[in-house]
Specification:
This protein is mainly alpha-helical. The chain contains twelve helices and no strands. It has one domain: Urease accessory protein UreF (Orthogonal Bundle), CATH 1.10.4190.
Length: 223
């Protein structure tokens, strides 16, 4: 019986984090477009380093901590509201705020195809990692596994954006995903044990790139 439950949980997680899931994540680069424009990311090696920094010290780390806390509190409506408000307050730019809020709302709406009371516990204004974390927990997906899938999807999306921006080819992009696999696993395990006191980052250039993207004239992405 447990194998059936685990298989269903895996299938749901794969569906939720699939590029086909209707959340519009492909429209965002998280400031990467500006980083490429400013010469901070010039090639596949630079893209890999950029993503590693975000995982260790930047927005992806904070998202992972928020995800883990939402996973633990999936049945606590008041707790989820507090985490959601904190997540939105941590958005370092208007575009980052719009990105996480838009994706969170779209995810919650699309996840209603799998009815569960947790969807009623989520606040209307919910950041993306909080929505995914709470829903994953409600459907019995283990925290570390859910976090690994979430972070891998985020990295994959950024690699795809990097390919569209011309700093990496398809083969190089696959290489980035292979090289960063151990780090994704490490950070997922670490974030599954983290608490809100572990929030914080030092990816200053990434935050500035996100801010500067707001006034960029020619853009492929919304962030």
């Amino acid at each position: 019986m447990s194998e059936n439950v685990d298989t269903k949980a895996l299938l749901r997680l794969m569906a939720w984090l699939s590029p086909a899931f209707p959340i519009g994540g492909f429209a965002y680069s998280g400031g990467l477009e500006r980083a490429v424009h400013d010469g901070l990311v010039k090639d596949a090696a630079g893209l890999g380093a950029w993503l590693s920094s975000l995982l260790r010290h930047g927005s992806l780390w904070n998202d992972a901590v928020l995800f883990g806390e939402a996973w633990r509190r999936f049945g606590d409506e008041a707790g989820l509201k507090d985490i959601a408000e904190l997540g939105l307050a941590l958005a370092g730019s208007a575009e980052r705020y719009t990105e996480t809020l838009s994706l969170g709302k779209a995810f919650a709406a699309a996840a209603s195809a799998w009815p569960h009371p947790v969807l009623d516990h989520l606040p209307p204004a919910v950041p993306f990692p909080v929505a995914v974390g709470a829903v994953a927990a409600a459907h019995g997906v283990a925290a570390a596994s859910a976090l690994a899938a979430y972070l891998h999807a985020a990295v994959s999306q950024s690699v795809s954006a990097g390919i569209r921006l011309g700093v990496s080819g398809q083969t190089e992009g696959v290489g980035i995903l292979a090289d960063i696999e151990d780090l994704v696993t490490e950070m997922a395990e670490k974030a599954s044990r983290a608490r809100l006191d572990d929030l914080g980052g030092a990816a200053v250039q990434a935050e500035i790139a996100s801010l500067r993207h707001e006034t960029q004239h020619s853009r492929l992405f919304r962030s």
